[in-house]
Amino acid sequence: METITIPATDGSGQFEALVVAPRSQPAGAVVLIQEIFGVNATMRALSHWVAEMGFLALCPDLFWRQEPGVQLDPDAGQAQWDRAFALFRGFDQEKGVEDLAATIAAARAHPACNGKVGTMGFCLGGRMAYRTAVATDADCHVSYYGVGIEGMLEDAPRIRAPLLMHIAERDKFVPPEAQAAILAALKDHPKVTCHVYPGVDHAFARMGGHAWDARAATIANGRTAEFLVRHLG
Predict the structure, then answer these.
(1) Which of 25, 152, 163, 182 could pair with 141 as two cysteines, CB 3.0-4.6 Å apart?
(2) Would you please indicate which residues are annotated as catalytic (active-site) residues?
(3) Contact at 8 Å (CB) between 140 and 55?
(4) What is the pLDDT of residues 148-179, one digit of tens each?
(5) Domains (ranges, CATH) in the chain?
(6) 87-127: per-residue pLDDT in tens?
């Protein structure tokens, strides 16, 4: 594991990204997009999981403009959630897309990368994965229980690279009417595949979390692995 520094494209500073390299190189790269809890233990574990699957993992600090190095624990009480939601409310998503585009470029330039780069995000990161599918040149995208996507469906025609979406049927942050709108708008999109996981809540794939569901997570992660191998080599 290493940390690299990436200059912001607007000239406002620079931010750090965690990097975990696979054993076999060069390899496709995956830009991991954080939840509202920062680049915490969960994101570090996911970065290692991606590298163990044979991909170069990069996880940028998207909250750096507010507070660099945020690492919150969603299972450590309400105060952590309150801080996370405050950071979410203060997060400039347009700048976040710019920072993700810069991270995608940095991934392509990394000596361990084969030139192909995908994104994969969770919660806020799932939303941002959808936004990177709309606005960047990454080769593929994976969204786990992305929030607020129902408000951005008019951008779907701009998606040019494959997008895999994992939706929790009982997601308390993505209610049934939002899910219905997403599924209706994207069902005929040639680049988008949506899977709904029955009976599970938001963050069902966060191992050890309150909503962890081993069966749904295993199925979703298997689909993700096959998708990344297909599109990143």
Answers:
(1) 163
(2) 171, 202
(3) no
(4) 999 999 999 999 999 999 999 999 999 999 99
(5) 2-232 (3.40.50.1820)
(6) 999 999 999 999 999 999 999 999 999 999 999 999 999 99
